[in-house]
Amino acid sequence: MGERLNQRDARERIEDLERPALDDRSYRVVTLPNRLEVLLIHDPNTDKASAALDVNVGSFSDAEDMPGIAHAVEHLLFMGTEKVSVEPKSWLQDPRSSSLGANDARCWALSRNKPEHDADSAYLLTIRYNWTNTFQYPKENAYNQYLNAHSGHSNAYTASTSTNYYFELAASSSTPTSSKAPSPNATQETLPTAKDDSPLWGALDRFGQFFVAPLFLEDTLDRELKAVDSENKKNLQSDTWRLHQLNKALSNPNHPYCHFSTGSYKTLHDDPIVRGVKIRDEFIKFYSTHYSANQMKLVILGRESLDTLEEWAEEIFSKVPNKDLPQKRWDDVPVYTKNELMMQTFARPVFELRSLELTFLYRDEEDLYESHPSRYLSHLIGHEGPGSIFGYIKAKGWANGLGAGGSSLCPGTGIFTINVKLTEDGLKHYKEVTQVIFQYIAMIREQPPQQWVVEEQIRMSEVDFRFKQKSPPSRTTSALAREMQKTYNRKMLLSGPAVIRKFDAEAISQAMTFLRPDNFRLNVVSQIFPGGWDQKEKWYGTEYINERIPEDFVAEIKHTFENSAKERPKELHFPHKNEFIPNRLEVEKKEVEVPLKAPKLIRMDESVRTWYKKDDQFWVPKANVHIYLRTPIPHVTARTTVMSALYRNLVSDALVEYSYDADISGLVYEFNNHTAGLSISVEGYNDKLHVLLEKVLVQVRDLEVREDRFEIVREHMSRSFRNWDFGQPFHQVGTFSRYLKSEKSFLTDELLREIENITAQDIRLFYPQILSQAYIEVLAHGNLHKEEALQITDLVEKTMKPKRLPPSHLGIQRTLILPPGSNYVYERQLKDPANVNHCIEYSLYVGNTMDRDLRAKVLLLSQMTDEPAFNQLRTIEQLGYVVFSGTAFADTWAGYRILIQSEKDCDYLEGRIDHFLNSFEKMLQEMKEDEFEGHKRAVINKRLEKLKNLEQEGNRFWNHIFSDAYDFSQADEDVLHVEPLTKQSLVDFFHHYISPKSPTRAKLSVHLVARAKPKEATPAERKTQAVTSLSTILKAEKIDADTAKLESRFEALSLDNAKADDALGAELLAYLAEDLELEGDVVEKVLDEAKAALGLAREKRVSGPVRIEDVHVWKAGLQMSTGVRPVKDLGEFMEGNAKL
Ligand SMILES: [Zn+2]
């Protein structure tokens, strides 16, 4: 790209990007005069606008003596905007499958490019100048408040060579109303061009300031470092992070991959201070050394025209300073040298995991994006069908899972990894498993690269790209901003990562040469094998052994590899042709005025209900079919619940080889057990859907329970029950909450007790009982004809042949009612001895979810408290990295909740939540009308958010069927009930149900108590904390604080005795009242918050909560709610009904 880009008119504009067939967005790539490359996306129908900026610097650029600095700069730049999602996970989910958080793990540290210490002093001055004189949004949470007021949100993450910031918010400032709810095909509104009419402009302007004139406020520094510290502590007991860090730690010490990337208070604050480093200056220096317009990629998506978006981008972002920095690359440093290769590592996990991993030194394939050669290898090695490594070792009883793939760690470096989840027996045979892997690799290397294999991949990648549906705007912008750091031809920005374009035999042959028996590392993870772990990883404390792979084992592998053809088991061979690749891709497109919001009932009788909707808006050759066999049998007792879950897993286990080809061809099935029956879902390209569905149904009906598979499946499941206790407390807490709200629900330890006494014979006898009688409900949705929906129903009936279960025999879904004035606490001690984090979920019951007015008020309250709760409890009080507030809806239970995971104990958190609610009550009373209306608008926008794709619509329908309420128009109803709400009605609602002072509110808190204690702060640390906390709070109160006086008060203060807390509190009081001469009520408020931040506060509670000791007795003392009923007579959904 040349200098001529300085001229706007001569600017190169690339617009003809390859795109999916259904993509109605337009795209433009431009480069601003400061060399910042921008992708503009005009989406005329979007209801959300978004932008993302990716900076080409990450933890690989961390200074060696300040690990985590790139991550800390990310936090500091946006001051408290990084959030973690707290959606609870289902208890049956294997905790191992939890993916890494936003700070993706392929990260981390190096110091080869240490910041040049003198080069940037001029720039430091610029930053300070900007900060004091020109920064337009000095209030630190102004960005979040703005986003919140426009139904928006933001987040950021730090990877190895990327730091990625993004936000999303309403695309328009006008409120859509339910009567003219937007549909994806709604006629295009006139494009907004005025800045005032577009929330996007205001957000971009605030967002851009972070890169033009970053704040690095002194008093947010300590807080954000605490947030980083809390984030690190959240990960300390997570095996995903622990094992990943161990792999990194054992790589070449000269490659940045080896360093610790998250950072902690110690690495970013304590240690540097001891060395006499001015830490704030270090952060600013890091920023000014690595942040440069020419290494930033910006993506903006909005309703505005490309020309308008380009103008805005230029106006805001051309001010970002450009330093013409080179791209960060590590070409000359291998991630493994001969010192690290041919080593074996045995690591001891926190969870009961067992795995074998082979890691090969590979290459960076970024420039080979037209052929993606590593996908040839991962396709074959990772295959699960007949002939595959996995098929063979699964039949031996050695493995429950296998994954393989190449990954680029950074430009210039790549690895190829094969990971096998081992059974107990597999662990004993890990050497044989290794041999099998090398036999298979030798087999594929004997043949030249197979063109037909690649052609199948090409075909599937093209189909997937052609019918790729939209993802949410912020996911689109964030991902594309990151992709733009790569070298793709700009016309292939969207297709490059997805599509394989050509068969490149030469490139594949080269790729295969890396998978050799002298070019790998071997890694075994187990809690019991081999014992004698003699080393500890520095940051997470993982115990391990690291040693040379024994000569004789290496010799065996080499022998196998070279003599493979003769000695190889005949079971290993290339996969068969994939019969599931879809051919029929026609879509019958019948344009409609307004898409239907509900499926129709096309059959309803004593044994079956069939719901059907032909797709009328997404036009993809796909369908979703959900089948529900309704019966109470699976959930009668904990024992039947576990037997049903075992049955489910045995069916899935039996289908692995068969369903794999479908899976890689975009056609997936799911078989599940629920409290009210069994469900089978098949989703994907509709061409071969019936083939897979029939096979699944037959397997469900005819499952042969083999002893060997039963033992493996049972062991796997009981292990995941045991592991559950070692998961994140905030993932566990929802399960206890649900347990206390529903009449019948079982905890993991209750299930674990049952599983030991169940045999294969028990399952053989039990599962036909579930299937013997059921009511069938079917949803067929997508590119299907009505006749096909009816045929599918017939197929289910003919295959399963259940006896009729009259709908009146089905269970009724109810929840417990908490009477007014309730104040209950349920306490559990967490099992993980090393975890230091407590967790509280504080729930307030307001009534029945079927009460639309109450539901609307809960939605509005959640919107209004979202930003203030996070700001107070996380940003100001620093209670912990995980802070969440919002709705609590479960079956018929409607409520509001606040969840915090923290090192502070639960009683203390209880008090802080009360305190927050008290102060919010005042905010609500004083809230201006226009602000109140803004919150209403935000809720309405969220509820009317457009559906992005067919799956989303299918899931929405299915959830409403599954819930028994058939409330397909719930979103519109919510809007109708939010619209008339007045501020006074919310104030009254708050007084009655939410306020801690209310005698009529009903509260239930779950306290999960940690076993381990965090390290105590030293007296000096406590004093520093007190000074920073107090200045933060005073700043929020807009009081100028001279903290020097407080520091001098502290000099003489001794905190080495039992009365330290009182002494500290007294000194703070004296400072506020005497030195600052503040008014009495101000002193009280500030002191209160300061004590909270320092862990000195104890909220005085008038009456203590009732502790729930015996849950059974407690539940027996409560009444049940009315049950879930259909919101209207189901007959009204019948096809041809005039009311529809
Ligand atoms: Zn973070």
From TrEMBL:
One of the record's GO molecular function terms: metalloendopeptidase activity
Biased composition (Low complexity): 174-187
Superkingdom of the source species: Eukaryota
Record-annotated Coenzyme PQQ synthesis protein F-like C-terminal lobe domain positions: 860-958
Pfam families reported in the protein's UniProt record: Peptidase_M16, Peptidase_M16_C, Peptidase_M16_M, PqqF-like_C_4
Coiled coil: none
Record keyword Zinc present: yes
GO biological process, one term: peptide catabolic process
Sequence ranges assigned to domain Peptidase M16 middle/third in this UniProt record: 465-754
Domain Peptidase M16 N-terminal: 38-85, 130-253
Region (Disordered): 174-194
UniProtKB keywords: Hydrolase, Metal-binding, Metalloprotease, Protease, Zinc
Listed transmembrane segments: none
Residues covered by the Peptidase M16 C-terminal domain: 280-459
The keyword Protease appears for this protein: yes
Family the UniProt entry places it in: Belongs to the peptidase M16 family.
UniProt name for this protein: Metalloenzyme, LuxS/M16 peptidase-like protein
